[in-house]
Amino acid sequence: MTRRQRHDDRYTRRDLLQRAAILAGTGVALDLWSLRAHVLAAPGTRPAPIGNLLIVQGVDAESLDPHVTTSGASKGMMWAMYDKLLERSADMKIIPWLATQWRVVGETTWELKLRDNVYFHNGEKFGAEHVRDTIMRFKNPGIRNVYAGQLRPVRDVQIVNPLTVRIHTDGPFALLAEVLSIYCEILPKAITGGEVDPTRRAIGTGPYKFTEWLPGQRMVMDFAERPHFSGQPRVRRLVWRPVSEAATRLVELKTGAAHLITPVDPIQVPELEATKNVDVIAFRQLSSQIVVLNSLKVRQFQDARVRQALNHATDVDTLIRTVMRGAAYRLGSAFGPGIPGYDDALRPYAFEPDRARQLLSEAGFRDGFEVTLFSPEGRYLNDRLASEAIAAMWTRVGVRTRVQVMDWSPFVQGVLGKTHDAFFFQQVGVLLDATVSINFDSERKGAAWQGYHNEEANRLIQDAVKTMDAGRRNDMYKRLNQIVYRESPWVFLWNQQGVYAKQKRVAGWTPHVDGIIRLGDISLS
Amino acid sequence: MITAAKPVPAPVRPATRRRWPGQFHAGLAIVGTVLLLAVLAPHLSPHGFADQDLLRSLQPPAWVAGGDWAYPLGTDRLGRDLFSRLLFGARVSIAVALLSVALGGGLGTVFGLTAGYTGRWVDRIISRLIDVQLSFPPVFIAIAVMAALGQSLVKLILVLALVTWVQYARIARATTLSVREREFVLAARALGAEEGRVVLRHVLPSILPPLLVVAAVNMSNVILAEAALSFLGLGIQPPTPAWGSMVSEGRAVQSLAWWNTVFPGMAIAILVIGANLLSDGLQRRR
Amino acid sequence: MGRFLIQRLVHLVWVLLAVSILVFLLIHMSGDPIRLLTPLDAKPEDVERVRALYGLDQPIPVQYVRFLRGALRGDLGESFRYQRPAFELVMQRLPATALLALVTLGLTITVGIPVGLWIGARAGHAVDWVISLVTFVFISLPSFWLGVLLILLFADRLRLLPASGFESPAHLVLPCLTLSIYTSGLITRIVRADVSDVLRQDFIRTARAKGVGERTVLGHHALRNALISTVTVLGLQLGNLLGGSVVVESVFAWPGVGWLMLQGIQTRDLPLVRAVVLVVGTAFVLINLIVDMLYLYLDPRIRYDHSG
After folding, report:
1. How far is C258 from chain A (nearest CA, A)?
2. Burial level of C136, CB count in 10 A (0-12/13-18/19+)?
């Protein structure tokens, strides 16, 4: 503690001395600028956007073509320039965006009402034709869009009037709204018509317009002159830089060369909290950490009692306290909060090694058996560390476990090839169907599916996609959750804490639990 | 470089006064000490290199407030003892240094000698091979190959050996070419000695001295290369510690927990200084 | 001279061929590139479709031939990750690495040679011992460690210089300093050794006895030899400099080709890695060519040998 105090005092003195140089160098001499903006703004209007916001993420965008991007970091950048038909609030509720209303008309048709007075950066007025052209382009097999399959049930898009479309699907497609709130950024005719190359120039309807992109170096966006329906952006210019080292991101934030950084290594939190002018924001991430049990490879895992035993043998609370240093939230459900079907009434598996031994005995494995637990190295936070601790816990109840650490590439091959006995994994998923539930479906077999078979679960999963009524669908997912949690094809661990750090000057921003930056009302004071 | 015809006494202190100059001894002492520490690591280290104690994470060195002599140089983010990890990391550095120099040197000598002695098309092929490989930056190749093939001590040693053999081959070939025509070799052959014996007993001893110099210089390069590769995450598989990867792991907390970055780096520097002293000493021993 | 040039250019082609095959094999040997390019939650049919779009479903020899044909037209393929021509991406990042190398070189020459000359003339004196010790340490420091420490000191603690990226000239300072410390230490030592050797020679004693000024002695004879050695060593060091730049670029997030290659390898972005390796290989050979020519010019004995 003493060291830190001395540390801070040193910073204050040096800070004052060196601030001017840094500020001038990075062109962020805002006090004069903000004064000017207030003076010039006409009475009754919002002040003009000011300041350069410097955002530093771990990776760069893959492309300027939003349909091709996949990483969370890319999406954050794309969604500053492009809008989707629907969006998600901070707690993952679907909210109107370019579409103001959406409803189901009959089993195979959705009707969307579109927002008026929205313009692309090149002057085109947004309307029904753009929705049709963009959706068709999204599904185009010639585009390197790995998520094209998300809209496969869409047969065609009917233009009712310039501000209304009807989307016709092959069979009931209950999750269209979910899909449209994550995928399918709307493109202008200049791009869908082929006149402009979307990998060279981005033209959207978003609050910021594209200025320049030097891959691997920086992407610059300026506020689009036209006011955006979400509220005019408060910041004049966005500069996104990729810096792969957590240590360097930290230094950039401390020196003011970055205003917002992500991801933050949890071990850096104490240092950040002790730094003046810096805020640390933590949230419960959407994705959960689990251990997947392969019942195709290990016959003992075919018995639900064995799987439950392993859940009872794992002391998750202690792991969270020691391995994750408290920066995780116990997962007491098949999937975490924010995902449809989440049930907080489920009771988490208690840490009861005796019960575990008893269950193993009942299943006929009183003398235990051997198993190998696979883990990637450094792909997920503390993956190897957690795996080693878990292996020790399982061994104590008789399931003699050894840990095998692998590089990501062979690890993934093993996951997909279903050759790992058991493996530490991170399960992602905002859309219940495409990502999470498919891992429980023995007919469709998602990436993490490793042999679990339950008829009722299969039925629920496949029917839910076709159930147009949201309430009933949610009930089905809840039922699925209860079944899966009881049958535990996985050992359920935790949801990690996501951490952002920003300068105190950055206001009006909250993180979303899927970890993607949505700028919203962000401003620089 | 031009060699002095007659050494001039003052004010220059002639470096050729002794057969084995001080630098050589100093270098040998350093490298020898590291080798000894590496070999005895399991007995000397107070803890296992993978023993974690999360409650002791980021403990400072013993002489700083909050430190503890049971963990003399402090701990890393997982509560592992830095001193123990340094000792085990020495194994990697020394093993890679000695083995890849031995392997690369051996390969290079064999190829160079063969090329120089046999001549004709064998020489042409080997020379072309040497030329092509020399045209490419060595560390670059090492990085590319290790990144593609994954981490492993054996692969690391092989890759570094394969990248450096050309340096030996070139010298071996050149010196073999000149030695081949020397009187004692011609005499031996005239006397009817078989080629193998001639090579082993006459040619090889003559070309070894410059090769040893190359080996020593090479050793410090290899140590730095291994450290850099480990730093980039392209060296050995964790949890085995390597000094370079220890520096990398320490970066996230470099500001608060400086010992994680400073001590492993110092260890690398000390070993390289030893290797450099060795090569310096060998070069001055004319 | 002309024959020499042509010989070297043929040699260049061999090198490029060998290297491109090597890169191909490496990337393919190290696992399925498509799996690293696509997220785990993509549907299998989408993954296969994208694999075909990238041409990765063809057998390896077919892929290589396709690449060769493209290369002859000047097309080195499109980066998997960025979906832009790989050649363009490399050329866009090359100036940053070149700048780093040139400034480092400049710093090395302007500091290393004069200091080396100075202490070479005073070999054995206190000044020589001190500076020799300092340079000895300089050439023993791992570059990544030095870079990390410099960031810690100048960016974190002192807030004097920026920590990463290339947004302003000030960003050049720390990366160049990191690289220059090694190279200038090396050059200083080489020059010193050369100078002290030359100054011991008989003809120097004669010149001094005749009353030729110290400056001429130093300037004329010593400098020429120093330059030859410098050029030789720098030429040999070029390889290390390029490798060192990968590490330094990674530490400082410097947007150059070294870091580009590293990222490309980690994402198995075959066309990108191939393009980097080919461009860097070509540059390397060409620079070596220039170094050789410089060498010929500086060392008259070799020149005589060639024309004789």
Report:
1. 12
2. middle
Q: Say whether C26 and B269 touch across the interface (CB within 8 A).
A: no
Cβ atoms of A171 and A108 within 8 Å: the answer is yes
A245 CB neighbours in chain C (<8 A) are: 164, 251, 253
C-alpha torsion A72→A73→A75→A81, nearest 10: 160
Which residue of B lies nearest to A319 if distances are taken between CA atoms? B54
Nearest to C156 among A71, A146, A254 (CB): A254
Rounded-to-10 torsion of CA B258, B261, B263, B269:
-140
**A218–C167: do the CB atoms touch at under 8 Å?**
yes
- Which residues between 191 and 250 in chain C have a beta carbon less than 8 angstroms from any beta carbon of chain A? 250
Smallest CA-to-CA distance from C86 within C298, C263, C283, C285 is with: C263
Interface test with B, best of C27, C136, C152, C200 (most B CBs within 10 A): C200
Q: What is the pTM of this model?
A: 0.83
Torsion B114-B116-B121-B126 (CA) sign: positive
Residue A302 in tokens: 């075919």
Burial zone of C1 (CB within 10 Å; 0-12 exposed, 13-18 middle, 19+ buried): exposed
The answer to whether the complex's ipTM is over 0.90 is: no
Decide if B135 and C15 are in contact by the 8 Å CB cutoff: yes
Rounded to an integer, what is the distance from CA C286 to the centroid of its chain? 12
Name the residue among C148, C194, C239 with its Cβ closest to that of B137: C239
Nearest CB to B147 within list C12, C243, C265 = C265
The two structure tokens encoding residue A75 = 């999406």
Q: Which tens digit of pLDDT belongs to each residue from B65-116?
A: 888 888 999 998 888 899 999 999 999 999 999 999 999 999 999 999 888 8
| C256-302 pLDDT per residue, tens | 998 898 888 777 788 888 888 888 878 887 887 787 777 777 666 55
Tokens of B227: 């450290």
pLDDT digits (tens, 9 = 90+) for A13-33: 344 434 444 443 333 333 334
pLDDT tens, C119-128?
Answer: 888 878 888 8
Contact B136 C250 (CB under 8 A): no
Q: Which residues of A touch B (CB under 8 A)?
A: 2-3, 245-248, 250-251, 265, 267-268, 270-271, 322-323, 325, 377-378, 384-385, 405, 407, 409-410
Pairing of strands A260-261, A52-57: parallel
* Partner A contacted by C43 (CB < 8 A): yes
* DSSP class of A342: -
- List residues bridging with A502 in a β-sheet: A260, A279
Provide the pLDDT for residue A32: 39
Category of B79 on φ-ψ map: left (φ > 0), alpha (ψ -120 to 50) or beta: left
In this complex, do A384 and B239 lie within 8 Å of one another by their Cβ atoms?
yes
Q: CA geometry: angle at A344 spanning A343 and A348, to 5°?
A: 105
Q: How far is A446 from chain C (nearest CA, A)?
A: 8
Q: Are A412 and C36 an interchain contact pair (Cβ–Cβ within 8 Å)? A: yes
CA distance A253 to A55: 9
Cross-strand bridge partners of residue A238? A53, A221
Written as one letter, the residue type at C133 is L
Distance CA A219, CA C132 (A): 46
Q: Is A287 helix (H, G, I), strand (E, B) or coil?
A: strand
For CA atoms B174, B180, B184, B188, the dihedral sign is positive
Q: What are chain B's partners, defined as 3 or more CB pairs within 8 angstroms?
A: A, C
CB-nearest to B138 from C23, C136, C243 is: C243
CB burial of residue A156 (10 Å; 0-12, 13-18, 19+) = exposed
Distance CA A441, CA A460 (A): 9
